[in-house]
Specification:
Helix 7 packs across helix 10 and helix 8 packs across helix 10. The chain has three domains: 150 residues, no CATH class; 53 residues, no CATH class; 160 residues, Histidine kinase-like ATPase, C-terminal domain (Heat Shock Protein 90). It has eleven helices and nine strands. The chain is rod-shaped. With 413 residues, it is α+β, with helices and mostly antiparallel strands. Its EC number is 2.7.13.3. This is histidine kinase.
Length: 413
């Protein structure tokens, strides 16, 4: 009932009812208070009925507004007639000239005019109020729709920003990984370049000395010894070329994570192959080899990079051994293969090796780029071993330098 605005309707009915009291008193209706009060109540009820019927007309009929006003006024005229006919036997509205004495058509006209007059007061007020209320309701609805649309756009924008942020974070993560991989490649390539300059130094020194001696032998016509030295130089050059090939293979793009080609590598065969490269240097220093490896022992790794590791470890051992034995052995412990390369320690240990006195307290080597660069080979070994998932340590224990590599995939032990 809230939409009928009953409080305002009751106020309007009361004002209209009370406004005619002075006129009725002037007509002498105060002599019959019962009729006066009763007719006033009837008029008040008629005003309320007119108010409610006008609201019903406004809401129930789907007509243009001017047609609704005409229908509402017709209802006002009809209500005026109905209320008089229902109450005239009990209360007198016009005591100076009784309505009963007039013809019916005149009564109808007078009552209709009274209803129209009342309608002209109430109907415009109702229509103006409801039109304004609907306008405000429509404006509120549009505002709510705009707010809802803004919320939807905000939600879509937030999702779009979230997606773009996620894409940006993913791109930044990818760029970060690419940068790390690039830095890793540059780091390894610098080590390869340093190793090329470092690892060919000893073979080249031997080749230079051998060629000089060969020249002297040729000058003294000692052809057999000259031929023997020439064969040694040839083998040294071939082995050095193989080392260079391994290093170049490493530098040609196999340093991407997961891009290394693995194969079964025979440890005894590759160890003998690498040992031949240092055979002349070994003999000139009074050293000997002792390779104690099963001929069928193989490991699953990259052959080229394993060759680089073994070359650097053997180079380190031969450079720091005089009149001693370089022992190469292997054992299985904890389901993993341990490969050892050990040589007698000297007073001048290679850069990057820490010395310990107790057998049960080994010290893992620490990289240092200082001195004459003797530690470059070990740095390269460490980096390549990490790339191949090989655990690598080198330690000085009880007068020996022991390099250890641990392989997870092996067979033929």
């Amino acid at each position: 009932m809230k939409k009928y605005n009953l409080q305002l309707g009751a106020l309007m009915a009361t004002v209209v009812t009370l406004s005619i009291v002075p006129v009725r008193l002037a007509e002498g209706q105060g002599a019959n208070l019962v009729s006066l009060i009763g007719s006033e109540i009837v008029i008040w009820l008629m005003c309320m009925a007119t108010w409610l019927s006008s609201y019903q007309t406004y809401y129930k009929f789907s007509l243009p507004k001017w047609q609704k006003i005409a229908v509402a006024l017709l209802f006002c005229a009809a209500i005026s007639n109905l209320f008089f006919l229902a109450s005239f036997r009990m209360f007198e509205d016009y005591p100076l000239k009784s309505m009963r004495e007039l013809p019916l058509w005149i009564i109808t006209i007078r009552l209709s005019l009274r209803g129209l007059l009342l309608g002209l007061i109430m109907v415009p007020i109702i229509f103006l109020l409801e039109t304004e209320r609907e306008r405000q309701a429509e404006a509120l609805k549009r505002e709510r729709d705009r707010t809802a649309d803004a919320e939807r756009q905000k939600h879509v924008l937030e999702e779009l920003v979230s997606e773009r942020t996620a894409d940006l974070e993913e791109t930044l993560l990818f760029l970060g990984e690419s940068q790390e991989e690039l830095d890793h490649q540059v780091y390894l390539l610098t080590r390869v370049i340093a190793s090329i300059a470092h690892d060919v130094q000893a073979p080249m020194q031997f080749i230079v000395a051998a060629t000089k001696h060969t020249g002297k032998l040729i000058g003294s016509k000692e052809w057999e010894q000259a031929a023997e030295y020439n064969q040694q130089v040839e083998r040294s050059l071939a082995d050095t070329a193989m080392l260079m090939q391994n290093l170049l293979e490493f530098a040609r793009g196999q340093i991407h994570k997961g891009a290394l080609h693995s194969a079964d590598v025979n440890l005894a065969a590759v160890m003998r192959e690498k040992a031949r490269l240092f055979e002349q240097i070994l003999n000139s220093a009074g050293n000997t080899w002792c390779i104690s490896l099963n001929e069928n022992l193989t490991v699953r790794t990259n052959a080229h990079l394993l060759g680089v590791i073994l070359h650097n470890l053997l180079d380190n051992a031969t450079k720091n051994t005089r009149d001693g034995e370089i022992a190469i052995s292997g054992e299985v412990a904890g389901g993993r293969l341990h490969l050892y390369i050990q040589n007698p320690g000297t007073s001048a240990l290679p850069a990057g090796i820490l010395q310990t006195e107790r057998q049960d307290s080994p010290a893992q080597y620490v990289t240092r780029l200082e001195g004459d660069g003797n530690g470059l080979g070990l740095i390269l070994v460490r980096d390549i071993a990490a790339l191949l998932n090989i655990d690598f340590t080198i330690e000085a224990v009880a007068g020996k330098v022991i390099a250890r590599m641990v392989f997870s995939e092996f067979s033929g032990s």
